[in-house]
Amino acid sequence: GGPPPPLDKKSSTTTTTTNLDDEAVVLGVKEYYGQTLKSSDSLKTSACTSCDRPTGRVAEALKLVPHEVLSKFYGCGYPIPPGVNGLRILDLGCGSGRDCYVAAALVGEAGEVVGVDMTDEQLAVARAHADEYCASVLGYARTNMRFVEGYIENLSGIGIGEQTVDLVISNCVVNLSVNKERVFAELFRALAPGGEFQFSDVFCDRELPQEVRTHKILVGECLGGAMEEEAFLAMATETGFLEPIMVTRSPIEVHDAELRDLLGDAKFSSVTYRVFKVAEDRRIKDGRVVTYNGKFEDGKSGYRVSADVTLLEGQKTRVEGKVATAVCETWISKFFDVERPCCSGGCC
Fold first, then answer.
1. Cβ-Cβ contacts under 8 Å for 334 (sequence gap 6 or more)
2. Which has more confidence, 42 or 140?
3. Is-contact 152 146, C-beta < 8 A?
4. How buried is 72 (Cβ within 10 angstroms: 0-12 exposed, 13-18 middle, 19+ buried)?
5. Residue 270: which residues within 8 A CB-CB, separation 6 or more?
6. Which helix (DSSP H) or strand (DSSP E) does residue 271 occupy?
7. Does the predicted model carry a pTM greater than 0.90?
8. In the predicted model, is pLDDT for residue 224 greater than 50?
């Protein structure tokens, strides 16, 4: 995989020691996922496997994924939304490729899935089954997914062009990056207008000390680099994204007593967020009356936009702010019928 990418100077106080720590973290992650872990049974915490059970078409597609791909995959959720047929999907830190295999089934032969990872051993597993899976299992005339070696902080360096992706997914990976601001900047560049970054990752209720953030096992287990949630929300909006929308949250357990002692009272959660790219002048400040039109592929009677908003088929519902913007101004707008804009005095 080569040396880690050059690190941005975060400020005038950035030191050589910090850069060396960052490089050690990158190399440690590559070793942990490429050589130390043999399967998900090797994990010392539930961080890389903590999640709700998948449902609908995702659950059905998972049954088709080759065993080796499943056993070598480490993730904390299922960040693939419904209704992705025909979309261009990018998977950050795809690992053995489980989510790419699921996405390949969901986007159909006309869609495209690209997985990027920095670990040779993981990519070898992902690539080994791709052609046979697409041809024999999915019945496609062509393979609609490919795997690229590279760093998620430098997507342009591996040929991911500006505004060439409709949906980016990531599963317990952003926490492993030593330059999360750069990751979000690259995502904003790569996503088409109305596109989405839906990801599951590990978050913490506080900023973690340096000895935790550079601890090889804690970083590898997705805890050392966990984002403090308020800092993440600020970073996403400062990059230019719509305020993130939470979908699911699950607590994380640390099984290893020694690691629990190192972490102290810090509490960790696996959270799935939807982060949409919508221009400022397209954002809805008030509200809209919308109706879910039933075109969602899973055949359910409702569409879950967020943890606390599920829109039912045929039922008029007023949505506001970021949820209204997501429903009306992004790729998911095809699932909704929208009535006239609300006036300042209220709707309808």
1. 83, 295
2. 140
3. no
4. buried
5. 47, 50, 51, 76, 77, 172, 200, 201, 202, 203, 248, 249, 250, 251, 252
6. strand 268-276
7. no
8. yes
